[in-house]
Amino acid sequence: MPRQFTLPDLGEGLTEAEIVAVLVHEGEVVREDAPLLEVETDKAQVEIPSPIGGRVEKIHVTPGQTVKVGAVLVTFADGATASAPSRAAAATPTAGVAPAAAPAARSSRVAEAPTAPRASAPAGRPAPAAPAREAAPAGAGPVPATPATRRLARELGVDLRTVRGTGPGGRVLDTDVQAAAGAPAGAAPGGPAAASAPAPTAAARPPRPATREAAPPGPAKPLATIGLEPPPLPRFEQWGAVERVPLSHLRRTIAERMTLSATLIPHVTHFDRADITDLDAIITRNLERARERGVTLTLTAFLLRAAALALRAHPHFNASLDPAAGEMILKRYCHLGVAVATPRGLIVPVLRDVDAKPVLEIGRELGALAQRVREGRATLEDLRGGTFTITNIGALGGTGAIPIINYPEVAILGVSRARPQAVVRQGQIVPRLLLPLTLTFDHRVADGADGARFASEIVSLLEAPERLVGDL
Amino acid sequence: MVMGELVDEVDVAVVGGGPGGYSAAFRCAELGLETVVIDADGRLGGACLFEGCIPSKALLHVAAVVSEAERAREWGVDFGEPRISLDQLRKWKQERVVGKLARGLASVAKGKGVTVIGGRAVFEDSTTLRIEGESLQKVRFKHAIVATGSAPAPLPGIELRSDRVMDSTAALELPEIPERLLVIGGGYIGLELGTVYATLGSRVTLVEMTEGLLPGVDRDLVQPLQRRVEKLFAAVHLGTKVTALREAGGHVEATLEGQGAETFDRVLVAVGRRARSRGLGLEATGARLTERGAFVQIDERCRTHDPHLYAVGDVTGEPMLAHRAMRQGKVAAAALAGQPAAFDNVAVPAVVFTDPEIAWCGLSEAQAKSQGMETKVAKFQWAASGRAATIGRADGLTKLVADAASGRVVGVGIVGPGAGELIAEATLAVETAALVEDLAATIHAHPTLSESLMEAAESLLA
């Protein structure tokens, strides 16, 4: 019985997604949970695993196409092995939307005990004459790979049995897995020609992040408007040659959201400076110790900690406005967004419950989160639910920047580069390290005085770093 | 609602405090989940610590010291006859070994914020456990991990309730050193405990139903052990069944098929272990048991058929080994926390702590052949090992099985003193898909027994 798989509800009011890549071919037999499609939403680029095992009869979408929730993506020829959503997929939007999510149907995946090592796999090995570097056929013994590589494969949703190992003795290497993650499943590069030269194979198929950037943006289409129609553009061609480049999905999302925020919210920006000479010394002193604990200690981790503590005392900045209800929504949780520049554009991943975490833990989570974002592995959960945002562009220079609020939040803290400056202290000129801060907030929920008090709370926390360090 | 009933709400309830249970609980706590362990005895350690691996290894160490002292006569050192104080031995094993480790586990649990509740846990449904302990209590959980382990199996068809008939748990209590001990079962438990009692002075008769000791284990590895056991024990009867046990005048009379009746002071029944999956209320959940063995069925993430329930360790099947349970416990914890974990281990090492020790991992020669693999097999006799000569043990063997096509090490078996430690390197090799050449080209310290693995690998390359 043919079975159709539609774009699941992605949550958070997201109604559409752009198809970035189709990872299967028509006619291919896929396993449950095997990667089917890669889609990009306003929030994240995510992989949609197959909800069932079966043969792909028809693929209804092409890369670059934008599809609405409910649109048919793939038709399966048979869906006899439909099964419950995997828990590991909980972070991706497909969890919970697999058709016929009956636990009873999971029997196909549950090994009959004894679940001993794969050594006991019943099926015979391929004929001994088989070349060692062929991908292992399904049902054979374990795929040769180290446990760390196997974990990577699980993380990237790669079925190791479909990967041809280029390592000694046919061992599957990290690079093989990364290459496979960027290619359609089952389409591992083959051919005896490549067998003796592993390096070119890996190089020919670059790892996933690079592939993602290379994905062509979809056809151009108008931005959503919010009441104000922009006036028509002049014909620029009359003054010279132009080139028209369609916006990527992410670029369009950023454009729409910034327009919404800048148009809807009366922005106020308050400027301040924090003397972080002492804090800087603390960071330098503890860099090595933090690194021993696997954490790269950064100023941003302290900024997050300071902002979280200041938000506790100023809940109006940890809020949203409900104009329809005429109410302020004060959030009792403190999830802070951090703007991260990626090659694809600006992304704002969110750290949970920052007010409850010591700075070292914040640093640890921030490092992991930023890495996931840069590698294109962030999940929807990583990107939503923020209550306040910090954007630190200090690394890129500048003396100050006025950020735009990340709607529907009500405030954002901009941070520019700290520079040593001459400061008058008790009549003496002393060199101090000053950090420029810009707090932009929604004038509907707070006034200039509130903003000044909130900003100076952050400044005083940064200037008295012993209140921030706790566990260092 | 019963008066005074308490309901606790937790993220994870672990049922059973053995190695699988505590490994899972500790990892859950590290992942920030509120975790309780419900253990029938209200303590962490399980069969492994209190009635299995640990006490048996303590006694086997004593046995090894006794036999080593005996052999030292050959080398010109005479310690005289050993005088054994059973009270002191029991006390050492119980307090200094088991007790110390148990206190250690308790303090780790405390440090990680894992609560241990004493009582019998019964599932009322997929999210509720009833605990029948000192006070009646309920625990509501988001996920539960079933880690109830296994218990010694009784002798099928023979019912004799007597203090003189012991299971492994009772035998490890060392009630006495019986003059004549019958060990029923030639598996690793029977061999290990038989070795302990024989070394401490019992005349041990071992009866095994099948035609060989350690059924299923490579005969090349079993042979040196068999030779030694036949010297150490009064008698070894293979292919023999015990058809009746009868208590008579402070003794036990055993009828051995084809051998007639024999009288013993005590009997140790070591015919395997069976899953503790009954009486847990699992029928009130979606979890399913296998028809054979009543093991809880799990997938590679240790999930049962019930989305709230995971299971790890002996209760999920063979091989019933503490280290498999520990790894599964960590996998289950990570999986329920949403991480992409899987129990995908290729090699689970197994060790028989007899003298000589036997250890193996990965595929045996026979298993590899039955999978249609063309193999290359190397056997390195320890007679050629300098280190083996210096400890007076030339009876060891290191056997390496490789896939001929790829040159990968797919299995290793070792017999000889220290095999249990030596197998670690082999397990790493199999798990990481190392080549024979990798082992051969790795420098091994000289003179050590570990060289035997390198020598075996070199002989395959020659």
The whole-number mean of residue pLDDT values of chain B reads 94
Assembly type of the chains comes to heterodimer
Which sheet architecture does the biggest sheet of chain B show? 7 strands, mixed
Count of domains of chain B: 3
Portion in helices of chain B = 25-40%
Number of contiguous helices of chain B: 13
Helix content of chain A: 25-40%
Span between termini of chain B: 75 Å
**Strand segment count of chain B:** 22
- CATH fold topology of the largest domain in chain A: Chloramphenicol Acetyltransferase
- End-to-end separation of chain A in angstroms reads 61 Å
How would you characterize the overall build of this protein?
The complex is a heterodimer of chains A (472) and B (462). Chain A is α+β, with helices and mostly antiparallel strands. Chain A has three domains: 1-110, RNA polymerase II/Efflux pump adaptor protein, barrel-sandwich hybrid domain (OB fold (Dihydrolipoamide Acetyltransferase, E2P), Beta Barrel), CATH 2.40.50; 125-218, no CATH class; 251-469, Chloramphenicol acetyltransferase-like domain (Chloramphenicol Acetyltransferase, 2-Layer Sandwich), CATH 3.30.559. Helix content of chain A is 26%, strand content 21%. Chain A has twelve helices and 19 strands. In chain A, helix 1 (147-156) runs parallel beside helix 2 (174-181), helix 8 (299-313) packs across helix 9 (359-374) and helix 8 (299-313) crosses helix 11 (448-463). Chain A starts with a strand and ends with a helix. Residues 79-139 and 184-218 of chain A have low confidence and may be disordered. Chain B has 462 residues and is of the alpha/beta class. Chain B folds into three domains: 6-152 and 274-336, FAD/NAD(P)-binding domain, CATH 3.50.50; 165-271, FAD/NAD(P)-binding domain (3-Layer(bba) Sandwich); 350-461, Enolase-like, domain 1 (2-Layer Sandwich), CATH 3.30.390.30. Helices cover 33% and strands 25% of the residues of chain B. Chain B is built from 13 helices and 22 strands. Chain B has helices at residues 19-30, 46-51, 53-71, 86-112, 168-172, 188-200, 219-232, 322-336, 365-370, 386-390, 419-431, 436-441, 451-461, and strands at 6-15, 35-39, 115-118, 120-125, 128-132, 136-146, 150-152, 165-166, 180-184, 203-207, 235-237, 242-248, 251-256, 260-264, 266-269, 273-275, 309-311, 350-352, 358-362, 375-381, 397-403, 409-415. In chain B, the strands form five sheets. In chain B, strands 1, 2, 3, 4, 5, 6 and 17 form a seven-stranded mixed beta sheet that branches. A five-stranded parallel beta sheet of chain B has the order 8-15-9-10-11. In chain B, helix 1 (19-30) links the parallel strand 1 and strand 2. Chain B is globular, with a radius of gyration of 24 Å. The model of chain B has no long low-confidence stretch (mean pLDDT 94). The interface between A and B is large, with 47 and 54 residues.
